Every structure is written in structure tokens, then in C-alpha cells.
Amino acid sequence: MSGKTYPVFEQWAQDAHITKQQYENMYAQSVNDPDGFWAEQAKRLDWIKPPSIIKNTSFDPVSIKWFEDGVLNVAQNCIDRHLDKRGDQIAFYWEPDHPDQPAQAITYTQLHERVCRFANVLKELGVKKGDRVTLYLPMIPEITYAMLACARIGAVHSVVFAGFSPEALAGRINDCDSTIVITADEGRRGGKSIPLKKNVDDALPHALGVEKVLVVEHTGADIKMKGGRDVWWHEAAAGADEFCDIEPMNAEDPLFILYTSGSTGQPKGVVHTAGGYLTYISLAHETVFNYEDGDIFWCGADLGWITGHSFTLYAPLSNGATSVMYEGVPNYPDASRFWQIIDKYQVNQFYTAPTAIRALMGAGDDFVTKTSRKSLKLLGTAGEPINPEAWEWYFHVVGEGRCPIVDTWWQTETGGCMITPFPGATDMKPGAATTPFFGIKPQLVDNDGNVLEGEAEGNLCILDSWPAQARTIYGDHQRFVDTYFTTYRGKYFTSDGCKRDADGDYWITGRVDDVLNVSGHRMGTAEVESALVSHDMVSEAAVVGYPHDVKGQGIYVYVTLMAGVDQSDDLAKDLRQWVRKEIGPIATPDLLQFAPDLPKTRSGKIMRRILRKIAEDDFSNLGDISTLADPSVVEKLIEERQNRS
Ligand code: WTA
């Protein structure tokens, strides 16, 4: 927890939306008088019926409602209300995968027209308020039209990251009973094509409820269209009206479902609602990023993840911003691409994940320093802990020491930033998320639930509700209660470890459950294990994380084969491919070790703590192994580990 402190820049302390004094006053009001604070903040939005009830929440029993008698429409707040003043302003600059492909600039007026058309096409296909619509789309403008069209007509979108496999897609379609899937012929990433429509075709035999597939033509690839089921977006749109009324939505109506990994079982469909979510992220976008009218804002996150939902799409649009949306990856055609895009669009605020920063840092400074980056005012990170070395590089090389960094800690379930510096108010410490956002009451507890005061390290809980909090897990409210509010009864448990330093600043240390964070993507060890044991030759598998220079955490799998099956390098390769096919490339194991036996307690529970230590090459610190059914298993595993490369 030691290390440098970078004091707030003087200019920022004077000019920022939130100065130190303002932060202190607003934070105090937000926790002492949440009704007053959030009633005021709700005025950021246009309401068809303004809310008179503000906060009605309890963590024991669990019941969370914000602005419950308010009526609004999220798409109207993101588009229509800006049209008078900003009709000709660019809402999105869209940058293609390769710089030689044509870019697009979409004004608010154009966005309105396209979203309306999209909404009318969805209605034509039978989509009604409350229906779930699955999106499996690349980072192309149409994904924003589709999400906003759902919001416009009150349908609930479920965006599935376009890197997931057909199997993973089918599971997510079935879980929320979607009858319609929106996809594209292909996606592009880093010069490669991703066969999205083919993946949907492969998924649908396992998702029999799907009646319609709406297909966006993107690369022009030759794909199969199934009569009666598959519809081209451009054909349907040609006949669609360019105006579509908004559906009035209760603040507590669901806006979207987003699947995320937990420590057990299959991914959970986290449900976010309209009013509280938009109010909170709109405030976060303005204050954490110090967004000012006219700024060009770029959040690099894919719309398949929460960071994309909140900060690539909804928050900037709610504030009438001009955003950048990029189809590709950080290092294609080369490691200068991010910085070239920043120069091309004169980006003012740039927000990305530590894994991208580490990868680009590894490519060398020249790729950065040959670009200008003079437009940058602020840098942000999210998704995983940032190591101080990467922070310093981001600060000194990318930002040339001019730009504050906001290291924002939050989760799919929290909807928006929870612990984060404010650039005009908070001294920065490389690696620390620092201070709570408005309305957030963090608390550290030990494993027995005892509250830890002062300088301490423990499990991070949040004591009271905030408007952007997830309301439930789709179709399984009990799982929501059990997962988040039962470990420490009456508190929201984040599953993150955290330290609080002598100044009261918070440092997130990473997950304390069986969830890995691989390149900023959440990955349940249980999901990877269940993919492995579905292979004929595997009898048992245990998955743990280990430190990885670029990805933050790598995936380390221990595999026990069926009796009579011989281990070989080819089989190891096959098993890695198998997981890739079952879940998607992001789940591909980095290291695989065959294990004739796994260390288990006498009651048969796998001792992951030991497996983690072995994966980390930390054999001296295995702790007590005397409770194992057969302690000699550990020696064999260590021997194998030392023999592998
Ligand atoms: C981790 C991403 C340290 C954390 C927005 C959390 C972070 C998980 C940070 C949620 C950060 C996110 N510093 N760790 N600034 N931001 N995390 O749901 O472990 O994809 O629980 O949401 O990422 O990942 P998710």
C-alpha cells in the first residue's frame, strides 16, 4: 500500500465539476439524505412523470426500488431530448477495424431516425414491451441502434459478447426465453472475421424458442438465410417508418439483462432497471470523467460488457456527448492504433482496461510517442486491478504527466462506478481506486463478518443501496439474495478483497471467490471446469488463476483423465481447443497440467488454495496439508509442475 501519491493538479482543483470541498459536501449529503440528494439528481433526466418516491430499499429482506412512481423512457433521454439543440451534433464517431475501411459519423438526428426504424422493425417482428431480445453483434453502429430500439419500445435487451461460442450463446438465449436474436453476417476484429451468423445457426438447434433472426449485413460474407426465420435488417428497414413513439416506462421496469460469471453454476442474468441506472451513470459520467459539453469521449469497452453498456452507450448519450466507438483491437494494424484514433477524433477522455495498457506498454514507447495525444485531458481504467507499473506508464507516457487517471472500481451488478477518484478532488495513488462515489458506503469485514475499522484489509461490502444497483437475477431472485446479501446478512457483498490505507483510501485486491479476471473479463472457474468434464476423456478438472503479465490472471487447469487414457501434448492441445469451442476464445486455458489425483479433503472437497499455490510456483507456502485425504498427491503435483515448461 505504500508508493507514490500524485496530488490533484492545481488547475483541476479550481476548474473541475467536483472540487474537494464539493465532493465532501455532496458525499455527506448523499449518504445522510439520500432522498434529497437523488431527488435532485433525478432532474438530470426528462421524466414523463417525475418520481415522488425516491428511495425505497432494504438489504434485509432484499427489496430495492428507486424512483418507483417515476415514468420515463431511456431512449428518449439518450436521443430525442437532445434533438432541438444537438440534432446536427455527432453522437458517435465509428472507427472500423482497419483504418483503410470507411469510418462513419452519426449525428443525433441520424441516430434518432435509425433507432426508430429499428424499433419499428422489431415491432413488425412481434417484439413487445417486456420481451427479451438477444443481441449477438460486433462493435458496429447497428448494435447501438438495436439496444436503443429495445429501450424505445420497452423490450429488454440481452447483449451476448460476440466472442462467446454457440453453446454459450444458446445457454443465454434459453435462460431468458428470447424468441428473437439480432446478429450480423460476420464481425471483424484485428483483421480476422468472426462467423457470427454461423454461430447463431449452430446455437439455435439448442435454443428452440427462437422464432426470428434479424441479420445485419456487415462484411458481405456469403451466409445461409433460413426462409421464414431469418430476416435481413436492411430489407426490413427499407419498408419501416422513420418515426416510432416511445413507450412510457416505469423507473423500475427492466432495461436490460447482462450475463456475468459467478463462483458457482452457469452465468447469471443480472437485471438493471431504467430510472435509477440512467440517473446514476449519467452523474458518474459527468463527475468522474469531468465531462464537459463539447468533449469527445471514448470508452474502449465492447458493448458485450457492462462498461460498454454504461460508458460506451448510455451515459455519454444521456449527457448529449460525442463518443467514439471502435470495432477493433488495441494492437491492429499495430500498437499505435489507440493513440492514432485519439488523434484522429481529438479525444478528450479515454477509458480502457489495464490489460490493454499492459499489452501496449509491452510493445514499447515509440508506438505512443510518435502520436500527438495533445487533445487528451483525462485517462480512465476499469475492470481489474491496475499494477502501479502500468499506471505509471499510462500516466507518464500516454498522458505525458498532464492527465489525471481515474481508476474506477465497479461491477456488472453495480451498474456504474462505485469507488473512484474524482479528478478535481482526489489525490491519485497508482493502484488505488481511492474514494467512494456519491451514495456509496463501503465497509470492510473479516471472514467471520466482524467489521474492520481504520487501516485494514478484508472483504468489501456496501452497506446501503444506490440507484444503479442490479435488482435481481433474471428468473431467480433467490439466487440474487443468496449470492449478494447472505454471506454478510444485510450487506451487499462484492466478492472483492480490499485494503483501506491510513488516509482512508480503498485499494481493490481482486476477487476472493472462485471467479477469475482474465484480461478484464470475468470467468467462473466452475464454467471452465464444467466445459472440461463434458469431454469424454476427462474425469475431473480443477481451474485456478495465476498471475499473468498481460492478462492480469491466466487460466490454469488441472485435469484428471479417465482410467486408461494416456496423457499427451496432443490431448492437452485438444482440451484447450475444447474449452475454446465450448465457451469462447476468452476462456482458453493458458496452462494445462495433467493430475493423476487432485488434493482433496477427507470429505472430498478440492483444496483450491493448494492448487493456486502450485500454479503460482509458490511451493514454500502451501499451509496445512495434513487435512488432505492423501497428502502425497501434493508432492506429485509439484513434481509435475516443476517438470513442465
Ligand atoms: C474487478 C467491470 C480493481 C473486480 C466494470 C470486480 C476491479 C470485477 C476494478 C467486476 C478496478 C473492476 N480495480 N478491480 N478499478 N474494476 N474490477 O462485472 O474484481 O466485468 O469484482 O465489471 O472486476 O467485473 P465486471
Task: Please explain how this structure is put together.
This protein is α/β, with parallel strands linked by helices and 645 residues long. It has a domain at 519-638: 2-Layer Sandwich (GMP Synthetase, Chain A, domain 3), CATH 3.30.300.30. Helix content is 31%, strand content 23%. The chain has an 8-stranded mixed beta sheet with strand order 12-11-8-6-7-14-15-24, sandwiched between helices. β25 and β26 (506-511) form a beta hairpin. The radius of gyration is 24 Å and the shape is globular. The two termini are 33 Å apart. 52% of the residues are buried. The model has no long low-confidence stretch (mean pLDDT 96). It binds 5'-O-[(S)-ethoxy(hydroxy)phosphoryl]adenosine. 5'-O-[(S)-ethoxy(hydroxy)phosphoryl]adenosine binds next to α12, β20, β25 and β26. It holds the Pfam family ACAS_N. Mg(2+) binds at residues 533, 535, 538. Residues 23-78 form the Acetyl-coenzyme A synthetase N-terminal domain. The modification N6-acetyllysine is found at residue 605. Keywords: Acetylation, ATP-binding, Ligase, Magnesium, Metal-binding, Nucleotide-binding.
